[in-house]
């Protein structure tokens, strides 16, 4: 029972911090700030999915979390490559 309370608390903390990071994604000021913010939010969502999976006993949701994490990683690499090319050609 205490573990469930801990998971619920972690869930709310992760949601709250993801909402705070949303400000950085929307307001910037730079593209790298937005990319890091978006990757951070996505990582928090993966952890939230894992917590919900454990709380509800629906462990197939962990597969969804793993896929989302892989998409997040590839997306981050693509955006980093884009920023590298954009920064290199503008100098």
Architecture blueprint of SSEs:
Layout: H1 2-27, H2 31-56, H3 61-89
Please give a structural write-up:
It is a multi-pass membrane protein. The chain crosses the membrane at residues 6-23, 35-54, 60-80. InterPro entries: MrpF/PhaF-like. The protein has 91 residues and is mainly α. The chain has one domain (2-89). Helix content is 89%, strand content 0%. It is built from three helices and no strands. It has helices at residues 2-27, 31-56, 61-89. Helix 2 (31-56) runs antiparallel to helix 3. The longest helix is centred in the last third of the chain and has 29 residues, at 61-89. The protein is flat.
Order of helices and strands: HHH
Radius of gyration: 16 Å
User: How would you characterize the largest beta sheet?
Assistant: none
Q: Number of DSSP strands?
A: 0
Shape field: flat
Helical amount among residues, as a percent range?
over 70%
| Structure class | mainly alpha
Low-confidence stretches: none
Number of domains: 1
User: Given the structure, what is the number of helices?
Assistant: 3
- Span between termini: 58 Å
Average pLDDT confidence is: 89
Strand % is under 5%
Q: Outline of this structure?
A:
The chain is mostly helical and 91 residues long. The protein has helices at residues 2-27, 31-56, 61-89. 89% of the residues lie in helices and 0% in strands.
